[in-house]
Fold:
Amino acid sequence: MSEPKFKKSFAVYRARKNNGGVAAQFDFNPQSKLLFLEMAAQTGKQDKNNNALFDWPNKIAFKLGIVDIGELLCVLIGKQTGVGRFDDGRYRGLYHENENGNSMLFFEVGKNGGFYMK
Structure:
């Protein structure tokens, strides 16, 4: 039986006039069943077409396993309002270790609709 075909990567770019934008890229690896999330800040520079540039060399990367993906999906389908442990009235985010130290991923329902990732 052949593997189902799907797009393995998805990117979102949110440029802002004040240069406070961010880009996020999701890449799925079907062999390891891991989802990789990379995020980069807007640099304040533009390319030759006046498109915002993002600081990919200094990106933050997360390797998301099945439990992490489940947390994200629970927020997306409305089962909870944030990811991670719920403590003192708020979600604490997903904790990840990497070669440069530790990182936290916050993903929650936005106050004015939509979703918020930090």
